[in-house]
């Protein structure tokens, strides 16, 4: 059967997922300002924020110290990732009841292409309603959904009526909708870009649409092409069921800031061993090692180096990471997070790891 020209895309986004799971499992948290991750002492970073605490301006990825200042009476909860993974698996099972074209973005959100679906229902809106209903029945959690003819618009739509909402952007309404949309509501335009655009007189989609592609590229680099397309509702990306893994890494936020170089070197060796085990288990290797450092004032930097050959050995990874450490101020400045990532992996065109060839003399 030939596919129709207009696709039917749903973006499902769980509402304050980690925090909602905690409020579901612990009744004493319900209706309270709950923060998952970080600590009341101001250490760490907010992993998730309930809607009750978002009213104070707290959001995910915010330093816990700032969250405490904004909402001193917030309840801090340690993450239970094993629980979140189990709930996420339940939700994905529901998705696959409707379509095989599911592209998970994280534990709590995914794109679904329901142009052709398992229940032969022509309405993506009705499918989105049914998915949200089943999620609530199975997990006792709410999800918001956006329905549109491409991924960008579906993503924007899912944010329009949160929490527990459903928004639909019809193809014939897309241009008017985008012209009236405030520039900060465009997915992919962050706070810094929003500020720059406003300084240039760009406050809405209509303002952005008046700029030529070449002028946007001159002002924003190659991302300008993206802005030129999205304001016109152009997004031809397909829902991909298998996302290519571009890197393998590990990182850890410490309970106390660290400046002992001997301890740090040993930690990087331990981290390298863990990464090496993953690489060898997956029959994978990489050419680029990246060291991530977050200082005690939350400044985060990365240092990378690439090889002409693939590596997967723990000693090679550790030696490289420790060498990169010399390009930082670790030791002079305390650190609260360290991480190592191995990228530029040996992938084939389908995103699977290639069999490594071992030369024999």
Automatic annotation (TrEMBL):
It is found in: Cytoplasm. Pfam families: IMS, IMS_C, IMS_HHH_1. Gene3D superfamilies: 3.30.70.270, 3.40.1170.60, 5' to 3' exonuclease, C-terminal subdomain, DNA polymerase, Y-family, little finger domain. Binds 2 magnesium ions per subunit. The keyword Metal-binding applies. It is an enzyme of class 2 (transferase). GO terms for cellular component: cytosol. The active site is at 109. It comes from the Bacteria. Keywords: Cytoplasm, DNA damage, DNA repair, DNA replication, DNA-binding, DNA-directed DNA polymerase, Magnesium, Metal-binding, Mutator protein, Nucleotidyltransferase, Transferase. The record marks 18 as: Substrate discrimination. Residues 9-190 form the UmuC domain. Its cofactor is Mg(2+). One of its GO terms (biological process) is error-prone translesion synthesis. InterPro entries: DNA/RNA_pol_sf, DNA_pol_Y-fam_lit_finger_sf, DNA_pol_Y-fam_little_finger, DNA_polymerase-Y, DNApol_IV, IMS_HHH_1, Rev_trsase/Diguanyl_cyclase, UmuC. Mg(2+) binds at residues 13, 108. It catalyses: DNA(n) + a 2'-deoxyribonucleoside 5'-triphosphate = DNA(n+1) + diphosphate. Its EC number is 2.7.7.7. GO terms for molecular function: damaged DNA binding; DNA-directed DNA polymerase activity; magnesium ion binding. The keyword Metal-binding applies. Monomer. PANTHER family: DNA POLYMERASE KAPPA, DNA REPAIR POLYMERASE UMUC / TRANSFERASE FAMILY MEMBER. Belongs to the DNA polymerase type-Y family. This is DNA polymerase IV. It comes from Fodinibius salipaludis.
């Amino acid at each position: 059967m030939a596919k129709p020209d207009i696709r039917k895309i749903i973006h499902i986004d769980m509402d304050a997922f980690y925090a909602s799971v905690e409020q579901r499992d612990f009744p004493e948290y319900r209706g309270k300002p709950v923060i998952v991750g970080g600590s009341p002492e101001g250490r760490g970073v907010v992993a998730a924020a309930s809607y009750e605490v978002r009213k104070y301006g707290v959001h995910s990825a915010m330093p816990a110290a700032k969250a405490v200042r904004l909402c001193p009476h917030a309840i801090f909860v340690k993450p239970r990732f094993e629980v979140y993974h189990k709930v996420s698996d339940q939700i994905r099972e529901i998705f696959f009841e409707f379509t095989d074209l599911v592209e998970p973005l994280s534990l709590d959100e995914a794109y679904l292409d329901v142009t052709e679906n398992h229940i032969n229902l022509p309405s993506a809106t009705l499918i989105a309603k049914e998915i949200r209903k089943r999620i609530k029945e199975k997990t006792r959690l709410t999800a918001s959904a956006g329905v549109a003819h491409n991924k960008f618009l579906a993503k924007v739509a899912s944010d329009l009526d949160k929490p527990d909402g459903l928004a639909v952007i019809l193809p014939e309404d897309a241009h008017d909708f985008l012209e009236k949309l405030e520039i900060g509501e465009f997915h992919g335009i962050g706070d810094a870009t929003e500020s720059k655009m406003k300084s240039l007189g760009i406050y809405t989609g209509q303002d952005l649409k008046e700029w030529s592609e070449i002028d946007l590229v001159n002002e924003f680099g190659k991302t300008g092409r993206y802005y030129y397309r999205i304001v016109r509702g152009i997004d031809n990306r397909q829902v991909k069921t298998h996302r290519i893994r571009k890197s393998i890494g590990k990182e850890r936020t410490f309970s106390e800031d660290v400046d002992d170089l001997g301890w740090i070197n040993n930690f990087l060796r331990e981290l390298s061993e863990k990464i090496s085990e993953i690489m060898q288990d997956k029959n994978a290797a990489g050419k680029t090692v990246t060291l991530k450092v977050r200082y005690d004032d939350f400044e985060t930097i990365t240092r990378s180096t690439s090889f002409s050959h693939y590596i997967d050995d723990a000693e090679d990874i550790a030696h490289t990471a420790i060498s990169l450490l010399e390009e930082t101020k670790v030791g002079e400045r305390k650190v609260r997070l360290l991480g190592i990532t191995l990228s530029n992996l040996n992938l084939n065109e389908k995103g699977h790891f290639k069999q490594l060839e071992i030369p024999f003399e």
